[in-house]
Structure formats: structure tokens, C-alpha cells
Specification:
Blueprint lengths: L2 H36 L6 H8 L3 H7 L5 H21 L6 H12 L7 H13 L1 H27 L9 H21 L5 H16 L5
Length: 210
């Protein structure tokens, strides 16, 4: 098979993959919007597919249940952290700025609609399956976070003697705590709240705090 034939066979596969990714993302966005507007329990799979403009059967080609929407978002967030860490390895940006940018990236969508975060909290509180899937995704995300924090120690920006795995957990706790408290009374920009939390954390773990 010559190079032209290989390229020709790859093109339909690439188009199909892009199409599948687009449909999957549309289903996730539609579900999160409906969860925010109607609540997780009241939203049906048919509601989601109607808003996403796909057939009801299409949903199950991507997700076993509506609960798996949350797992998909959490997994996507974990993958986003991994990509972020890969980019940070070759960046000269300070660790403090890097973590702020990461927090802003992970909070995408919440500032526009705080009810999306509320729907996640409700689902986690009431559904054991969702809790398990989110817990696993968060655990996975802590691995690249710990790697980034370890890199900060190697660069001399983060205090030595602190365990990167512990710091990664503290980052997640601070991030979700900040978003949750903001969502209760979103009178200020979420990014400002994240910046304040980041500055406070950095004052505790930065090299200058020793």
C-alpha cells in the first residue's frame, strides 16, 4: 500500500473519530445544562438526547447511564491536568501562576452557571455510583498534580520536606471548597476567589514561607 492509499484510508477514520468526539462532547454539555436547570434526578436520557439533537439510542453508544456523564467530565478534567503538567515541564512560568491557571481551567463552565456545580454536588451526595466514579477520577488527577508539585520543589519554588501527594490532595480540597462556597453566593468573580485561595496556599508552601 503506497503513502497516498494510507492517507486516504486514514481520513475517514479521522473524520469518524472527530464526529464521535463532537457528539460525545455535545451530550456531556447538554446533560450538564439540564442537570443545572432541572436537577439530576428529574433529567432523563431522552431529555439529554433531545437537547443534543441525537437519537436516544445514540446516548448508550457513549455512556451506560446518565450517571456516567459525571465520570466523563471528571475523567476529562484528569486528562486536562495531565496535559497541563506536560506543558509545564518546559515552561518558565512560576508554579504559583501555573496552579492559578490550572484552577481557572478546571472551573470552566461553573462561573457561567453555578447550578452546574450544584447538580454535581447533589448527584455525588445521593448516588453511590457517581461518588465512586468521581473519587476514582480525582485520585487519578492527583498523580500528575503531585508530579507538578514535585517539579516545583526541584525548581526551588516549593518548600522541601512537603510530600507532593499530600499537597496535591490539599490543592483539590482548596479548589473544590472555593468553588462550593462561591457557588452559594456568587456575588464576586470566581476567578478572583480562586486567585485569593491560590495566594493563600502559596504563602504556606512557597519557598519564601520557610
Amino acid at each position: 500500500m503506497n503513502d497516498e492509499s494510507v492517507r486516504s484510508s486514514e481520513q475517514p477514520l479521522n473524520r469518524r473519530s472527530r464526529r464521535q468526539a463532537e457528539v460525545r462532547e455535545r451530550l456531556i454539555r447538554s446533560a450538564l445544562r439540564l442537570f443545572a436547570e432541572r436537577g439530576f434526578v428529574a433529567t432523563t436520557v431522552e431529555d439529554i438526547t433531545n437537547l443534543a439533537d441525537v437519537g436516544k439510542g445514540t446516548f448508550f453508544n457513549y455512556f451506560p447511564s446518565k450517571e456516567h456523564i459525571f465520570a466523563a467530565r471528571a475523567t476529562g478534567q484528569a486528562e486536562r491536568v495531565e496535559r497541563f503538567v506536560a506543558q509545564a515541564r518546559g515552561s518558565r512560568e512560576s508554579m504559583g501562576e501555573s496552579f492559578y491557571r490550572l484552577a481557572v481551567s478546571l472551573s470552566e463552565g461553573f462561573e457561567a452557571n453555578a447550578a452546574i456545580f450544584h447538580s454535581i454536588v447533589i448527584a455525588v451526595s445521593s448516588n453511590e455510583l457517581v461518588r465512586g466514579m468521581l473519587s476514582h477520577a480525582l485520585e487519578q488527577a492527583r498523580k500528575p498534580l503531585a508530579e507538578l508539585l514535585s517539579l516545583g520543589q526541584q525548581r526551588g519554588e516549593i518548600r522541601s520536606g512537603l510530600l507532593p501527594a499530600d499537597l496535591a490532595l490539599e490543592f483539590q480540597q482548596a479548589f473544590f471548597g472555593t468553588v462550593f462556597l462561591w457557588s452559594l453566593a456568587p456575588s464576586r468573580p470566581l476567578n478572583d476567589c480562586l486567585k485569593e485561595t491560590g495566594d493563600f496556599l502559596w504563602s504556606a508552601i512557597g519557598k519564601g514561607s520557610e
